[in-house]
Amino acid sequence: MPLSDTREISLEELQLAARNHGLPLEALRWPVTPAGLHYLLIHYDVPVVDAASWRLELGGLVEQPLSLSLDDLRARPHAEHAVTLECAGNGRARLTPRPVSQPWLHEAVGTAVWGGTPLAGLLEEAGLEPDAVEVLFTGLDRGVEGGEEQAYQRSLGLHDALMPDVLLAWEMNGEPLPPQHGAPLRLVVPGWYGMTSVKWLASVEAIGEPFRGYQMTAAYRYRDDEDEEGEPVTRIHPRALMAPPGIPDFFTRARTVPLGPVQLDGRAWSGLAPVVAVEVSTDGETWDGAQLERDVGGRWSWCRWTFGWDPPGPGDYVLRCRARDEDGNVQPDDPPWNLGGYAVNGVQRVPVSVR
Ligand SMILES: Nc1nc2c(c(=O)[nH]1)N[C@H]1C(S)=C(S)[C@@H](COP(=O)(O)O)O[C@H]1N2
Ligand SMILES: [Mo]
Question: Mind listing the pLDDT tens digit for each residue in 145-158?
Fold first, then answer.
């Protein structure tokens, strides 16, 4: 990924940002994100797919390859999970130097109720051959990235592909998938950064060697320079976000809050382990615990947090929040730099003016 030393966002970055919108932070107040407010990340073009003639080809190292229409899939066991998806590049835009790609600030997140059938059931039905080591997912979308023409493809090791909550999903919030979210069928891998959840699925293939495609070996690796092999980006690191209080300035989005007690609120999640604490700082020095509440889903969806704040007087404040999970992962103030700008989960700062 090229790097930029200037703070100015280029027209190419703006072009990506206008296609791939984020969650407006006030939409953190919905337990389940309405489809149109959920963030989007589309590497190439949204493909136009005729759902009536579309089929999923499930093959490779299996005893019984399957070719499945949507009706065939609907005849399989149905499962639903509320899942918080986050783009691995969330937070990238604030790095210096800045990896030039989709310039996310904080907002590449959303929670939807995904409905479909467990992938494990279909792999079992097809019967994995003993020499299968990974499952490869291929989307119908094509493009050029890093100079290579390609279909969007990602793989998962067998252990991860067989996790019971991994879905082949044809529904989002009880409706058929919208085109931009992967219609007619997508993968949903709970707890993992979004790139894993391949949209517009064409095929699912059991393979005998680790897949070395662009999205596995060139993109989505933690590394400091191109020559390093690096570590793969997998599960979502903890993050808490605040729905900014008060009202925004149209251009700067700086907040104005009337003097008096105010309830701060937001969401927190981690794909590594359940969130156990959210702390809030209103003075830049001390941290106090927020109330946590699970108002949607189970392990794979974000929690709501609330915090009562009574500002000591009029003035300018910087509000901050941070999440900690059960494994002790906490959000750093300044996360380590990496070439792709992945998992940049630094603490959110929300300047407010109390009047
Ligand atoms: N086929 C395909 N699947 C894809 C992508 C893509 O560009 N093509 N983008 C991935 C990335 S990087 C993310 S973060 C998520 C975004 O899912 P959403 O747009 O439904 O929020 O989809 C993933 N699946
Ligand atoms: Mo992403």
Answer: 999 999 999 999 99
**Residue to substitute in 23, 40, 41, 54 for testing ligand 1 pocket (most ligand atoms within 8 angstroms of CB):** 41
CA–CA distance, 330 with 253 (Å, rounded to integer): 27
Domain hosting residue 120, numbered range: 3-232
**What's the CA angle centered on 291, arms 290 and 297, to 5 degrees?**
125
Which residues, other chains included, contact 355 with Cβ-Cβ below 8 Å and sequence gap of 6+?
256, 257, 258, 259, 314
User: Which pLDDT score, from 0 to 100, does residue 1 have?
Assistant: 81
CA–CA distance, 5 with 119 (Å, rounded to integer): 43
Centre of ligand 1 from the C-alpha of residue 37, in Å: 15
147 with 264, same domain: the answer is no
The H or E element spanning position 214 is helix 214-217
Residues lower than pLDDT 70 in the chain:
none
Q: In the chain, what's the furthest Cα-to-Cα distance?
A: 71
Examine the domain organization and report whether 209 and 295 are in the same domain. no
Show which of 177, 209, 232 is a domain's final residue. 232
What confidence score (pLDDT) does residue 138 get? Answer: 99
In the reported structure, the alpha carbon of residue 18 is separated from the centroid of ligand 1 by a whole-number distance in angstroms of: 16
* Residue 126 in contact with ligand 1 by CB distance below 6 A: no
- The verdict on the CB of residue 181 being under 6 Å from ligand 1 is yes
Q: CATH number of the domain that 343 lies in? A: 2.60.40.650
